[in-house]
Amino acid sequence: MSITLPESFKDKMKDLLLEEFDAFIDSYERPRKYGLRVNGLKLSAEAFEKLAAFEGGLVPVPWAENAFYYAEGERPGKHPYYHAGLYYIQEPSAMVPAELLDVRPGDRVLDLCAAPGGKSTQLAAKLQGRGVLVTNDNARERTKVLAKNIELAGIRNAVVLNEEPAVLAPVFAGWFDRILVDAPCSGEGMFRKDESMIGEWEKHSVERCSLMQRDILKHAAHMLAPGGTLVYSTCTFSPEENEVQIAGLLGACPELEVVPIPLAYGWAGGRSDWAREFGGDTERVESVAGTVRLWPHLTEGEGHYAAVLRKRGLKCEAGETEPGQKAEQGGKAEHGAIAAEHGGMAERRGKAERRDKAEHGGIAERGAIAAEHGDKAERGAMAAERRGMAEPGVNAEREARAPERRGNSERGGKSGRGAGDRGRAIGSEPERRGGGKRSRDEQLHKRAGGPGGGRGSGAGVVDAAESWRRFAADQLVGAELWPGEIIAYGSRVYLQPPGMPSFDGLRVVRAGWYVGEAGEHRFEPSQALAMGLRREEAALTLQLSADEEAVQRYLKGETLIIDTSRLEQSADAPDRTSLQEGSTLKGAELSNKRVVPKGYVLVCADQYPIGWGKIGGDGLVKNGLPAGWRRM
Ligand SMILES: C[S@@+](CC[C@H](N)C(=O)[O-])C[C@H]1O[C@@H](n2cnc3c(N)ncnc32)[C@H](O)[C@@H]1O
């Protein structure tokens, strides 16, 4: 065998698996499986199959939406489509937990242990831009990668936090419809994919991981709304971190029950006998048979464990649940996970849609998703399944870190603490200083009435929000209909999903969709804005073909000189006062008449945005790609 497994691991697995052990151990001789998941927020799986050329072909992953196996040797992390956020490279069995969570558009979803964001991007795709994804990780460095992956995916309705579950629990008590706990674990299912995990396994004991998992689960259960669903998952095989955790949780939280997972695709049931043997709550061990194990010798994946739990109780009708308040008011009982398993989904979806309408003024929004990786990215993907010990090493968004710090000396006025303190923004984000309830006005936000709406709450705020509105009116199409609240932290402007509780005292990495920075004289759109746009939402686009050299040059951060016939102005573009006279003409016309618009242009590869450029009258496009997003 090429992989040297720890003897103590082999001994334990032999005792557990008995006659299955040989098949299990032989699986380490077989090549690992490679997978990617198409970003349903940007395109369909069918469209992707037509667009992308994979020499070894793409084979659907049977248990996941829009997901494919690809052959070893392909380099999807190198392609411009990766930089356009069209897919996320993800180990196929790691796709299972988010599928089991049965997320519907409009849900409030928490991904509690989320970095680097593989499952978060999957969950966001299922939300389709409606509802909210709160994505959290307690490792500060890892949240930078998480934030970047959220932005690369073009997700508009996510908030990124960097907190301990114990801190989140009182803020979000009973608030979430869906919670994923993809727990830090000993990573036994990672050995074939990433041999360095063997060393990690030896360092971080099963016992230590078990303690962390128990604590995380307890707080997660507290944040789940009655009728809501929680999925617990690990990429390890040890019963102590799997069945025993679930039995323990059921004992501690009698309002939770296991929703049995149908066995298909070679999945095996959870092991009650192992739960009993390893000290699981004896009264609860039977129900863990309804959880699921993916074994590398029985499925086309590296291995995973997952449990679906539902919180008994009634769920509120739309709008009746306040943050931090248990939703026990009217409304019929709702059900939980796994779409295929349950009736009444239509009812649930109807409720979600009603709530969504209530929150969004009835305007549906699309969102977006994507990937990470490159070659480094491949390694980053591995980190995705690690249990939290991994150093991401992938560049987080660096743009605007300094400005954001400036921005953090905001009103709100209480004395600040040192960087990294609770209440400070992380990486490049807004910060809350001190405790205390923050009023909506203190938050410096304006209600989104679109670029033209809102009411001022203070000079600085009004300027930042106004600056955004002017930019949006001038350079974007339809932004006035986007849901969310415009929130400014200093000069940084966000669109925050509606109805969020106060983040006072929390470490906030992204308060919502970061749309850009308001300068004294102009608004500078963010890379996150570019990645979250559809091409038709930008007034002016530069249309490049993904396989042309200009795209590679752009991705390296170079300036481009373009044939202005490649420019396209949206037919629906609003009054573009910042553009030169005559700039409403289309590409070829623009070129013929030698009239070239100036200002921001959304650079697209095969129609998918990859970043901003700034065009001068001479056809020179200055590169707007932030350093951390460039291809090295
Ligand atoms: C298995 S990884 C998550 C992978 C991620 N779900 C994905 O699909 O990309 C576990 C994560 O849990 C985080 N973690 C560890 N302890 C935590 C805690 N107490 N609270 C929140 N996150 C924690 C680690 O930093 C790590 O990023």
Question: Could you give a short description of this structure?
Answer:
This protein folds into three domains: 7-385, Vaccinia Virus protein VP39 (Rossmann fold, 3-Layer(aba) Sandwich), CATH 3.40.50.150; 401-530, no CATH class; 534-629, Roll (Archaeosine Trna-guanine Transglycosylase, Chain: A, domain 4).
The CATH class designation of the largest domain is Alpha Beta
Overall 3D form: globular
What is the radius of gyration?
A: 24 Å
Q: Can you list the ligands bound to this structure?
A: S-adenosylmethionine
The total beta strand count reads 25
- The proportion of strand residues reads 15-25%
The CATH homologous superfamily of the largest domain: Vaccinia Virus protein VP39
- Helical content stands at 25-40%
Separation of the first and last Cα atoms: 35 Å
Mean pLDDT: 78
Total domain modules = 3
Structural class: alpha+beta
Question: Low-confidence parts lasting 5 or more residues at pLDDT below 50?
Answer: 316-462, 575-585, 590-594
Largest sheet: 10 strands, mixed
CATH architecture of the largest domain: 3-Layer(aba) Sandwich
The number of helices is: 19
GO molecular function: methyltransferase activity
Keywords: Cytoplasm, Methyltransferase, RNA-binding, S-adenosyl-L-methionine, Transferase
Biased composition (Gly residues): 449-459
Family: Belongs to the class I-like SAM-binding methyltransferase superfamily. RsmB/NOP family.
